[in-house]
Amino acid sequence: MLELRNITKTFGNVIANDDVSIKIEPGTIHAIVGENGAGKSTVMRIAYGFYNADSGEILIDGSAVNIKSPQDAIRLGIGMVHQHFMLVDTMTVAENIILGAETGGAANLDLDKANVEIARLSDELKLGVNPKAYIEDLSVGAQQRVELLKALYRNAQLLILDEPTAVLTPQEVEEFFGILRRMREQGKTVVIITHKLEEVLAISDNVTVMRDGKVVGNVKTSETSAKDLARMIVGRDVLLRVEKTDANPSGNVLSVQNLSVVGKHGKALDDVSFDVKAGEIVGIAGVEGNGQTELIEAIAGLVSAGNLSGKIYFEGTNITNFSARKRKELGIAHIPEDRHRRGLLLDFNLAENSMLGVHYRAPISSASGLLNDSAINKRIGDIIENFDVRPANAELPARALSGGNQQKLIIGREFELNPKLLLVSQPTRGVDIGAIEFIHRKLIGLRDAGTAVLLVSAELEEVTALADRLLVVKQGKIVGEVDPKTTSPEEIGLMMTGGN
Ligand SMILES: Nc1ncnc2c1ncn2[C@@H]1O[C@H](COP(=O)(O)OP(=O)(O)O)[C@@H](O)[C@H]1O
Ligand SMILES: [Mg+2]
User: Fold this and answer.
1) Cα gap 500→491, rounded to integer Å
2) Other CB atoms closer than 10 Å to residue 208's CB: what's the count?
3) Where do the structural domains in the chain lie, given as residue ranges?
4) Residues 6+ apart with CB under 8 A from 396
5) In the prediction, which pLDDT does 107 show?
6) CATH topology of 2-234 equal to that of 252-497?
């Protein structure tokens, strides 16, 4: 279907693709894996005409083609869904879809016809998208299906999906994979870029592994394993399991008593009580949206007093009415689930991001309010070194970093506070496997140094591997506490979903 031959592409002095050759067979799902910066997006953007290669060839059905722009690619039946969606919030699904497709201008937009055709495509693949819905009213998962429809509406036979699952919950991933399989049944070809080995094994027919701009492996999925893929991706053996000794917990650091929170859609947290001790990781398992976000935000001081009842004690002090800043000063660090909304200022550079939350006090600011450049440089230098943030350039805007490196920056910043209590949500979402191993080790290290850690993760595997004790939540209530070492994922899954 599509063949990339000897593609090389440089950006300044970075070799993003170094003599890359990939063959995509028609009617297959082909995964491209590799760490952040391996060159996956670049090579697929070349196939889509978004970038032009410095050298190399693109063939479709065996003949060389000239793809100089996305228009060329679309004409040849290639569609691409980018990591960041390109939809206009205030317009409907159908309006968004025909917006880019009709090159003749607004005069001949036939919205009624488009509504019918989009509804038909949506039904055919069971996408559940209403062409007349407004984008701003749709969940992230539904917006992604709109992006798929956009490509299909333009007759794409080959769809390139750049990390489509990074923004999805585990349930949405399952549904999404169902859609990809239906597309394959219809004879379409899918290229999926992902970090996640389980996803590669679950969905793909063939896999290409990239590292440092080169292809290091092309294998049939049925003939490989998570272990082999991990080794190819990282270039060394990777621990896919978390290694840790038993916890050595001491006194209570956090004590939550009868906490209830009213969220956007009514009662989000319902009379929750638990403790977290120094030197232990308490995990919260649950289907996303069952109160986890509100719980962490309540403890971090991000829920207004009017929406909350119950008490929160930190080292014996009632902090229920303390501001978020006061809590941070006491030693409560927070790694939020949404790094773009809460974690980083994307247009600020790494140095500036490294002092968010501590910018007003020593050693970053003097009593007179002047920023201390050498303290800032030391802080960001330490974070870059200890947390392996790449590229190692404090002057870059946070936006220029991959998701995994943005996450390492946030984690580094919060660890720099030497917290007594760490609140951490989805620590490895969208992060590549080398970095996952690294982040897991850092969390265990922090626990071993005596910090109390409260961990929320939608990945059951992650939360059971890291936690010393596991609380299961459902509809805002704690429905049980289990020992993650002796409880099977099936049992925990049943508690999460309410089966008996
Ligand atoms: N537009 C660009 N300008 C400069 N460098 C880029 C650009 N796009 C990608 N790169 C660099 O090329 C390399 C490969 O990036 P990319 O293809 O995005 O990797 P991946 O998708 O595997 O994470 C990285 O070092 C990245 O920083
Ligand atoms: Mg990429």
Assistant:
1) 9
2) 25
3) 2-234, 252-497
4) 349, 350
5) 39
6) yes
CA of 40 relative to ligand 1 center, distance in Å? 8
Domain 2-234 belongs to what architecture? 3-Layer(aba) Sandwich (3.40)
Residue 60 alpha carbon to ligand 2 centre in Å? 23
Query: Does ligand 1 lie within 6 Å of residue 39's CB atom?
Result: yes
Structure tokens at 214: 């080169």
Strand pairing class (421-425; 452-456) = parallel
Residue 324 gets the label, from left (phi > 0), alpha (psi -120 to 50) or beta, of alpha
Structural tokens at position 461: 């595997």
The CA–CA distances, whole Å, from 134 to 119, 138, 237 equal 14, 7, 47
Among 482, 468, 454, 143, smallest CA distance to 293 is for: 454
C-alpha 404 to ligand 2 mean position (Å): 11
Ligand 1 site-directed mutation target among 4, 10, 14, 396, most atoms within 8 Å of CB: 14
Residue 414 in tokens: 């919060």
14 lines ligand 1 (CB under 6 A): yes
Residue 410, both tokens: 């946030």
Q: Residue of the nearest CA to atom 24 in ligand 1?
A: 37
Distance from C-alpha of 450 to C-alpha of 448, rounded to nearest angstrom: 5
**Rounded Cα distance, 142 and 248, in Å:** 44
Q: Please identify, by atom number, the ligand 1 atom nearest to the C-alpha of residue 41.
A: 21
- pLDDT means per 10 residues, the chain with 500 residues, are 96 93 97 90 96 96 94 94 84 87 54 90 91 90 91 93 82 88 95 89 96 95 92 79 89 97 91 98 91 95 95 97 94 87 85 83 76 86 90 91 87 92 90 82 95 92 93 94 89 75
Residue 306, C-beta contacts closer than 8 angstroms, at least 6 positions apart: none
Is residue 31 a contact partner of residue 221, using CB atoms and an 8 Å limit?
yes
CA 398 to ligand 1 center in whole angstroms: 14
Ligand 1 neighbourhood includes 32 CB (under 6 angstroms): no
Q: Which residues contact 359 (CB under 8 A, 6 or more apart)?
A: 365, 371
Residue 17 CB less than 6 A away from ligand 1? no
Taking the CA of residue 45 as reference, the ligand 1 atom at the shortest distance is 17
CB 410 within 8 A of CB 379: no
In terms of Cα–Cα distance, which of 99, 107, 21 is closest to 56? 21
In single-letter form, the type of residue at position 177 comes to F
What's the CA gap between 419 and 353, in Å, rounded?
Answer: 18
> Which ligand sits closest to the CA of 44?
1
Closest CA to ligand 1's atom 21: 41
Q: Which two tokens stand for residue 428?
A: 């490895």
| CATH code for the domain defined by 252-497 | 3.40.50.300
Atom of ligand 1 nearest to the CA of 210: 22
| Ligand 1 atom closest to residue 43's alpha carbon, by position in its atom list | 17
Angle among Cα 279, 280, 285 to the nearest 5 degrees reads 160
